[in-house]
Amino acid sequence: MKWSFDHDRPIYTQIIEQIKLFIASGEYKAGAKLPAVREMAQEAGVNPNTMQRAFFELENEGLVFANRTSGRFITEDINMVERLKDELASEAVRSFLSSMKKIGYDKAKTIELIEKSIEERGDDKDE
Description:
By secondary structure, the protein is mainly α. The protein is built from 5 helices and 2 strands, in the order αααββαα. Strands 1-2 form a two-stranded antiparallel sheet. Strand 1 and strand 2 form a beta hairpin. The longest helix is centred in the C-terminal third of the chain and has 25 residues, at 78-102. The model has no long low-confidence stretch (mean pLDDT 92).
C-alpha cells in the first residue's frame, strides 16, 4: 500500500485517516490481522511510536482491537465498518459541496454537473 503524508498536519492523524480509508474500502477486511507496528511504520516511513499512537487511537474508536498473543485486528463489527463508510462519504460530500460553493456553483448547478459527469462516465448503469 502507498502512504503519503501532508507535512502541515500531524502524521499520526493522517495514518488514522488512511487506515480508516483502507478499512472502509475493504483493503483491510473485517477481522483481518494488521501487520506489526514496526512493519507498518517501516512501510509508511514513520517512527514506530507514531504508528503505535495511531493504533492506540483506532483501538479507542473500536475500529481495531488487540489480542495480546496474536497482534492487532480490524473490528469484526460490520455495522461499525458501514458507519465508518457513511461518515467518510458524508465528509467527502461536505468537502465537495464546500468547494463547489467557493467556485460559485449553487445547488442546482452542482447537481447538474454531477448528473452530467455520471452520464459521461456511464456510472449510472446498474451492475
